[in-house]
Write a structure and sequence with these properties.
Length: about 120
């Protein structure tokens, strides 16, 4: 990120920029894969221990665990879209060009596609 903001990569030859882009894309893919592998390995253990603890504690029920997960999920979803909207609005103050607050590609009939990744993650 620092290199892209400093302008060093813009002055580099095309071959170097292509290699740098390929390397960063590969590293991003590898780190993304590692995160999902770690989540996949830890999730069953967390799930079973949470259900066992909920069964042992008379004040906690399994539906309360599901409710907490959904509340946190939707809070993070709202936080993410709020953060993106604020970043777009704030970036409008620092750049000369006129950036639209809502992309013309995002129309009311396409809102379902924005929520599709969350549905795919939660589906069994």
């Amino acid at each position: 990120m620092t290199i892209s903001k400093s302008g060093v990569i813009r002055n580099a030859p095309l071959a170097m920029r292509l290699r740098a882009d390929s390397v960063w894309s590969m590293l991003e893919f590898v780190f993304n894969g590692l995160v999902f592998i770690m989540l996949g390995l830890q999730l069953p253990v967390i799930w079973t221990s949470s259900v066992i603890q909920a069964d042992l504690d008379p004040e906690v029920e399994v539906w309360m665990l599901f409710a907490a997960v959904f509340v946190i999920y939707f809070a993070l979803l709202i936080l993410r879209f709020t953060w993106l909207w604020l970043m777009k609005k704030i970036s409008h103050l620092f750049y000369e060009k006129n950036i639209p607050l809502i992309s013309p590609l995002i129309r009311r009939e396409n809102y379902g596609y924005l929520l599709l990744p969350g549905y795919v993650v939660l589906s069994p």
